[in-house]
Design a protein that fits this description.
Layout: E1 8-11, H1 18-27, E2 32-36, E3 43-48, E4 52-57, E5 60-65, E6 70-75, H2 79-90, E7 96-101, E8 119-123, E9 126-131, E10 134-139, E11 163-167, H3 171-186, E12 192-203, H4 209-219, E13 224-229, E14 235-240, E15 243-248, E16 251-255, E17 257-262, H5 267-279, H6 281-298, E18 302-314, E19 318-329, H7 336-343, E20 351-352, H8 354-364, E21 375-380, E22 385-389, E23 393-397, E24 400-409, H9 415-433
Antiparallel strand pairs: 1-10, 2-3, 2-13, 3-9, 4-5, 4-8, 5-6, 7-8, 7-21, 9-10, 11-12, 12-20, 12-24, 13-14, 14-23, 15-16, 15-22, 16-19, 17-19, 18-19, 21-22, 23-24
Length: 434
């Protein structure tokens, strides 16, 4: 077990900027993770260094120490459930792990995602957690608190001032794939499928991950800003609007989103567009599939499940239909990873039914999703945790980024409008790159 004597925590009398903290640590060569949501009741965590990793391995999930040596293993076809069992076995009540998993946690990502395993939750050498305005530091290794005093010292080439964007797949070919998907859906193969696009942005200078996250945090203050450093020097960063699941003691909460429209130039136009979204049969059907699935998935773990919505939630450049789903969990309460295993992937990012939708994605999408549409967040030794769906995101390297955006395809979807929606979503990260 991760002994409580090795997880030393105390409250700080100052509130460090978490983005600055992980930027300095990354510049100094440390592995970093960041999950930040600057809301009054939210939890934000900056993780620096490594004490232990819970990581995907052939046939299940392994525990690796700071030297990369496997010290425990849990077999299982579902890596999320295997990770849940392993975490319960090794974690003391005050342990904390940060990380996430790929859209397909059952298979290892390839291509550009070589620095990211299918699942990774890390017990960091040092964690700084901000909760309800108070800041706590948790050290899991001797001397880790010295990491609080790091300063950004890396000397970089000039930052990018412009980027050139190239679709990985011709937009005409992608809209043809959407058209093919609508035909399959009308034939009854599935009820909904989510298809995503990938573009590559090349900068004329450095695209710094810390600066990207700082920009996203400022532009989308109600979203989950995140940064996960890859083993190959890349960084996965984004600002997700969508909560997969939050578990706090005997309660769980999810907020599925599906159905989107742009923001208007004025309050009146905002309202007009929101009304169009609410009245859209396509968006209503798409959202119904998602919200009913989430409530149903939480049902077996709960004594009661209630839903409120759909309602229109607004972000800087987009509006979504959202439903709030609350659950009173059975005793003993299922932990955050067990709930995530039941929920992921929701029809908001995959489709429905799952197997049919994933088969269409594999056939028609033509890209490696990696951690896009997976999840990022934190878990603790009590079973609590908060996981956001990894959306509005990009895989960053020194002077470039791969950006991802997807849309829910229904039998009556218009491929041209779906292409427009992906362009709208790409703007969330493109504007943060320079």
């Amino acid at each position: 077990m991760i002994a409580a004597t090795k997880i030393r925590g105390r409250e700080l009398d100052r509130t460090p900027d978490l983005v600055d903290l992980v930027t300095a640590a990354r510049d100094a060569g440390h592995e970093v993770m960041l999950i930040e949501r600057p809301m009054p009741d939210a939890v934000s965590v900056a993780a620096i260094g490594r004490a232990l990793d819970i990581v995907a391995a052939p046939g299940g999930v392994a525990v690796e120490n700071a030297d990369g040596k496997t010290i425990d293993f849990e077999p299982g076809e579902s890596r999320l459930l295997a990770a849940s069992r392993l975490w319960r076995r090794i974690a003391s009540s005050d342990a904390l792990a940060v990380g996430g998993f790929a859209y397909r946690p059952d298979r290892e990502p390839g291509g550009a995602w070589s620095g990211f395993p299918a699942l990774l939750f890390r017990v960091p050498a040092l964690a700084v957690m901000r909760r309800r305005g108070r800041t706590f530091v948790v050290a899991a290794t001797d001397g880790a608190e010295a990491l609080l005093d790091l300063n950004a010292t890396a000397v970089r080439a000039p930052s990018a001032r412009k980027v050139d964007v190239t679709p990985v797949r011709n937009p005409v070919a992608w809209t043809a794939a959407v058209e093919s998907a609508t035909g399959r859906l009308r034939a009854g193969i599935a009820e909904k499928v989510v298809l995503a696009r990938e573009v590559i942005a090349h900068g004329d200078g450095v695209i710094a991950a810390g600066a990207v996250v700082r920009s996203l945090r400022a532009a989308y203050p109600s979203c989950f800003a995140y940064l996960i450093s890859g083993a190959d020097g890349t960084a996965f960063a984004g600002a997700s609007p969508e909560l997969l699941v939050r578990r706090a003691g005997p309660r769980a909460f999810a907020q599925p989103m599906a159905g989107s429209v742009a923001r208007g130039a004025s309050e009146a136009e905002d309202e007009r567009l929101a009304d169009t979204l609410v009245q859209s049969n396509k968006d209503a059907d798409e959202h119904r599939v998602v919200s009913q699935f989430v409530a149903g998935a939480l049902g077996p773990f709960s004594s009661s499940v209630s839903s409120r919505g759909p309602e229109v939630v607004r972000f800087t450049n987009i509006q979504h239909l959202a439903t709030s789903v609350s659950a009173e969990l059975n005793h003993p309460a299922a932990d955050a990873l067990t709930l995530a295993a039941a929920l992921h992937p929701t029809p908001a990012v995959g489709g429905w039914p799952r197997e049919a939708a994933d088969a269409l994605i594999d056939e028609l999408e033509g890209m490696e999703r990696g951690w896009y549409a997976g999840a990022v967040g934190w878990i603790d030794g009590r079973g609590d945790g908060e996981l956001a769906i990894a959306l509005r995101c990009g895989l960053l390297w020194e002077d470039g980024a791969r950006l991802y955006a997807g849309v829910g395809v229904m039998p009556d979807s218009d491929p041209a409008r779906e292409l427009e929606e992906t362009e709208l979503k790409f703007k969330a990260l493109l504007t943060a790159l320079v």
